[in-house]
Specification:
Helix content: 55-70%
Strand content: 5-15%
Number of helices: 10
Shape: elongated
Number of domains: 3
CATH architecture of the largest domain: 2-Layer Sandwich
Order of helices and strands: HHHHHHEEEHHHHE
Distance between the termini: 32 Å
Length: 256
Amino acid sequence: MTNYYKEFNIDPALKGDALIDAIRQKRREWMFKQNSAPSEKLRYEASEKIALLEEFKKAALAEPAPLPQFSITQRADVTTGSTQTIQTNETTQTNEITAASKKGHGRLITIIVIILLFIVVVQAVIVYLMVPKPQYIDSSSHAAMETAANMGDLTDDMPIEAVVNIAGTGGERFFKCAIIFEYDGKNGVLGAELRHNAKVYKDMLIDHMSRLTLMEVTEPQARDKMRKDLVRLINHTLRPEIGQIRDVFFTEYVIQ
């Protein structure tokens, strides 16, 4: 079973909305890595991470709320003669010291030293657990995190998908891709416009994909070139007062 917290370096103490926000942030980082990956292998690895994060998000949303904790008290049953008592640490220590004093001053000192050592060890463990551990992040991951932190909102709730025959292959080769848009999250009007016109953008995507040859979709810079073309085409349809998209991300890019 996958340990999502360890896999994506997320604090296990996070719960609820804080955990969902952390998962969303990690998903953005991996989508950026996928979009800028120089090879198909790295893009595939990034897509696997994105799929894992989706599973993590579903598991987090399905996690039940913690049950309330109730204190349990033990009462003495006088009628049956059975008694159950809860002794506090202070009472236990007092009894130990009292018993030790009867056996001599040396015994008392030994017990006190043991108690003090126990307290010191407990405090040291608490301090160790509370001090945050250093996190080592390579330069590429750090750059991806900084970029993801500056990213706007995504239309990942409504990806636009299309499948076409690749031009010049006589219908023997197919090209499938799915895209989402990045935009300024403070611009709610733009976000609503992008979702409202999803069908229009799908037609534009199909038209653009249908013009591409096999060489144009398989060359090393094919994804990056297509991404820039789509940004230009989409922004050309948006009115200036509404705003423009920042970028286009591929959630799927398959050639068969």
